[in-house]
C-alpha cells in the first residue's frame, strides 16, 4: 500500500462516530422506553411495556395520523414548488444561480424560533397581512391567519423548501438539455416532454427531496405549537410535553421510538418504490 | 412539574450545581447551603436576603442555583441515599415538595424552636401525616385574569368572562393542566370550590366545562413571552397570566391590566424544605424561621415582586405596594396533590378533552 492511497481503516472513523452519536443515544432511548415510570421521581430501570401500551390509544393514533399527514403534506408541497423552481433556476446564468442559492442557503441559518415568531407576526391581526388586504379593500376587517393549518404549513414549507431545492439542484443542472430537445423533435409537446422524460429521469432526486423534507418536518415541535391549533399538534409536541413538563421519560421515549419506526418504514417504502419505478 | 420561576435559568442552575458538588465533601461547620431556583430568584436572594441574614445571625450562606423542580428532587433523593445533601435548605415547587414528602426525603424540624411560624397561614406550614413539621411556604405569586385595556375598557370581574361567547378566538391560556391551574379555576367558578377535583368523576365534569372554552382559545401557550407580546398588542386581548409581570408591563405604559376576579386568583408558590441528609438542621431552622418574618416577606415583595406568605396586616406594605403583588381576596389554591397522585391520568384526559 503506498501513501497516496487512502487507508481503508479511515472508514472506521465515520462508523465510530455514527455508533457513538447515533446508535448509543438510540440504544439509551430504547432502554428508557421500557423503563418503569416512577411517579415520585424519574424512572427505574426495568422492562415493562406500559409506555407502549399507553400509546396504543385512539387519541395517539389520531395524533400520529396528524403528524404524518402534516409532514407528508409539507413534503409534497415543497417538492411540487421546488421542482419547477429548480428546473427554471438551472436554465439561468451561473451568476444568477449562485446568488439564488446563496439566498436559499441563508434561509437555513434561521432558527425555527425566528421563523415561527416572524410568521405569527406576519399573519397576525394587529400587524399582519390582513391589514394589507383590508387596505386594498379585499376584506371587510383585518383578521388573523394564525394559528391555523395554513400558517403551520407555510412555516414548515419555509423550512423545507431550501432542502428540497438543494437536493434537486445538482441532478437537475446536470440534466442534458438535448434530451428534452430530442423529445420535442420526436413530436412531444412541452408538458409531455417534461412529464414523460424529465420527471422520470429525475425520479430518484424527487423521492430523495420528498423524504428529506418529510423526515425534517416530522421532528418539528416548535412550529406546530406556535402556528397550529391544538388539533394540529404533532406527536413531537406531545413527546416534548411528556419529556419536559410531565417528567415521563419512558413514555416520551416510547413515543419517539414508535415515531421513528413509522418514519423509517415510510422512508423504506418510498425508496423501494423509487427503485422499482426507476428499473421499470 | 416545570414552572416558569424555575424555567428562568435552568442551565445556570445546572452549572452552579456541578460546581457546588465538591462542597458536599466538606466537613460540617461550613456555610448553610440554600438552594433557590437558578436565575432571577437566586440573584435576588443573593442581593437582598442572604447578606442581611448573615449579618443578623452570623450564619454564612452558600447560595445554590437549582435546576427544574423534578430534576432537583431526583438529585436530592439520590444524594440523600448516599448520606449527602447538595443543599441543606431547598426551595421546592409544590408538586416536588409533596413527592419528597411521600418518600420521606424532608428532615423533620422542631416547630417549637421557630417563633415566627405563627405568622404563616395553615397552607404554608407543611407537615407529614403524623403531624411532624418539615417546611414552610417560601415565596408565592398570583396567576390572574388579564386583559388588554384598549379592547376591554371595562375590567372583567369574574373568571366567567372567559366563557362568554363574544370572547370567541380571543383567549390565551397556559397549555398544561399542571401549570395553568384551569381545573382549580373552573372548579371554583362553577362548582363551588376545588373539592370536586377529589374524584375522577368530578375532574371529568370540570374538564367538560373547560371543554366549552375551546372555541374561545386562540393560543394555548407554553412560552410566556409569546402570550405577553400578543396581550400587549391586543392580538390576544384576554387570558391568564402572572400578576406581577402584568403590573410591571402596565407601569411601563403597556395597555394591559391584571384583575383579581371575584372567585379569587390562583396563588402558586414555592416552599422551603430541608434534606434529611443535612447536617445543619439547627441553622436551617433559623433560616426558615427568619424567612417567615413579616419584615422579610415585605422586603421580598418590594424587591423581588413576590406576594407575602404572611397575612397582610402583619407587614408594613403600603396599599400600593401590596396591590402590586397581591390581593385581599381569598386565593384559589392549586391542588398540587392532583398532579402527584393522578399526574398521568390528568395529563392524558387534559390532552383528550381540553386542548385536544
TrEMBL record, chain A:
The keyword DNA repair does not apply. GO terms for biological process: transmembrane transport. Residues 64-270 form the ABC transmembrane type-1 domain. It is a multi-pass membrane protein. One of its GO terms (cellular component) is plasma membrane. InterPro entries: MetI-like, MetI-like_sf. It is found in: Cell membrane. Belongs to the binding-protein-dependent transport system permease family. CysTW subfamily. This is ABC transporter permease. It comes from Paenirhodobacter populi.
TrEMBL record, chain B:
One of its GO terms (molecular function) is thiamine binding. GO terms for biological process: thiamine transport. Keywords: Periplasm, Signal, Transport. It is found in: Periplasm. The keyword Signal applies. InterPro entries: SBP, TAT_signal. It holds the Pfam family SBP_bac_8. One of its GO terms (cellular component) is outer membrane-bounded periplasmic space. Belongs to the bacterial solute-binding protein 1 family. This is Extracellular solute-binding protein. It comes from Paenirhodobacter populi.
